[in-house]
Amino acid sequence: MLKVDKVYLKTPTKIAILDHERKRTYVLRKDGLPDAVVWNPWDKRAKEIVDLGDEEYKHMLMVGAACVEKPITLKPGEEWKGRQELSAVPSSYCSGQLDPQKVLRLG
Ligand SMILES: O=P(O)(O)OC[C@H]1O[C@@H](O)[C@H](O)[C@@H](O)[C@@H]1O
Known about the structure:
The protein is built from two helices and six strands; from the N terminus they run E-E-E-E-H-E-E-H. With 107 residues, the protein is mainly beta. The chain starts with a strand and ends with a helix. The chain has a three-stranded antiparallel β-sheet, with no helix packed on it. It has a three-stranded antiparallel β-sheet with strand order 2-3-6, with helices on one face. The protein has one domain (6-71, 79-91). GO terms for molecular function: carbohydrate binding; glucose-6-phosphate 1-epimerase activity.
């Protein structure tokens, strides 16, 4: 794993994360959050995360829904709703069918 901090604009509402090492596939579903962030804290920021072990940052990757390009500004009394849901599904990699489109259709 390497240090990474990337923002992807206008991403689909479903994103598949294929973990070949652990043979798992995660599906991120999101609403109201058009962008996505792929990030890990690496050594310095990891020290601020109290429940992350000293060396665990080397194995950590966060993929999250985000709203970066057009920030949401609320006036007093205004409401906004957004959601993200992360679930694990059987890995398409394990079954020998590495087809991200197939994984997205599963959800
Ligand atoms: O902490 P959040 O809002 O879930 O975002 C995750 C990370 O996303 C990264 O892009 C930022 O550089 C970090 O500062 C931030 O912590």
